[in-house]
Amino acid sequence: MSANFSRGLFKFLEELKSNNNRPWFQENKSRYEKHVKAEAIHFIEDFGPHLQKISRHFVADPSASGGSLFRIYRDTRFSKDKRPYKTHVGIRFQHELAKDVHAPGFYLHVTTDGAWMGAGIWRPESDSLRKIRGAIMDDPAAWKRAKNAKRFKETWELSGDSLKRAPKGVDPDHPLIEDLRRKDFIGTHDLTKKALLGADFMSTFASACQDAASLNRFLCRALSLKY
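Structure (tokenized):
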């Protein structure tokens, strides 16, 4: 089994950090196509069969545009930071209905130093957030089983931002108030550069995604989505 990612990807990202401008990128675009885009798309293709074993309702889309791979181009229209390119690689594996509703997914974020994985739902819009909080209050035992599942706790850490106070209509003394104050329902898992360059990274990534099943299954149920 060969590695999905190469040192060429990390070298390109490192140099891009010091040369984040259009002339340099155009001169080195062939390197981007070979070491970043092609490697990421091959990873997405290879992960597809693994993802189907985790859940048939999440999608690995290797399309060069609009698929699982995020664009490297930054949207600078409303930002003071006018650097044109992202210096990381973002790959998402969304629920099949993610284009219609806010839905959970899996995520891989590759930087010059290594990577981290994400699972769950980041910054859901108000209706989805209300449903998730409602599901926690309606069945607190199910939420506790999801976040305390052995495989999830061994691999993932619940993360994201939270409100400073209890959400409107929620008892500030609720025993799960810390979770009910969450604005994000995501798990994160750090990865080393060595792990990404390893020939067994695909199995490592797939296993970690399977470990997050309890979280994504609860979130799908809360949002009336199939898992």
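The mean pLDDT is 95. The radius of gyration is 19 Å.
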